[in-house]
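Service request form, structural biology core

Requester: graduate student, group of Dr. S.
Request type: structure prediction, single chain
Budget code: on file
Notes: please return the result as structure tokens.

Sequence provided:
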Amino acid sequence: GSIMELTFQFFKAIFNCLDTDLYSPIDKALARAQLNLPQDLSQKIILFGAINATLDPRKGFSLLLDALKYLAQKNLLENIHLVVFGGSLNVSDLGIGIKLFNLGPIHDHSTLRTIYSAADVMVVPSTEEAFGQTASEAMACGTNVVGFLNTGLTDIIDHKLNGHLAKPKDATDLANGIVWVLENANSSAAREKAIKTFSLTVIGQELINYYHCGH
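Core staff response, request fulfilled:
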């Protein structure tokens, strides 16, 4: 075969590993209490977070806002709250009828685990994303994820099993995905995907197998 064919024989994508013991679900009401978020579980929480979450346009916060505006027009934001972490918002009210909780930058895994466990859906609306570590972390904590097709999230989310993959840059379909997860969320499916695909044991074995095949 050609040099290109020989090269591809030794190429394998191995995902970022995740400590699925560290990132694991805790009781939702307890998690919310620790974060001073609504403890009534009929109140739903949409989670968004990333480094410079609201400042980096590639992270898609504007698309999330458009999705929320669409839901507001459909009168679907009742009893729904938005929690943002990883960046600072200079507003306390988005003006679209959804209560905003801004947790700011988070620097420890324990608090991240609590945040993921408190949420009902994690939205990762990145337009450019090589992998999406927050998505795998959220799923390990039993939270379904909504993101866009044609990004690295296609390796993480199984459509309508542990989340929803929306049409690229389509805020309306992103909104549809949020609604789908809120109505159909399967926390065990999310957790199971994270363990089977991203856990330290699984990724470690894949690395060992790859190096053995290379010799």
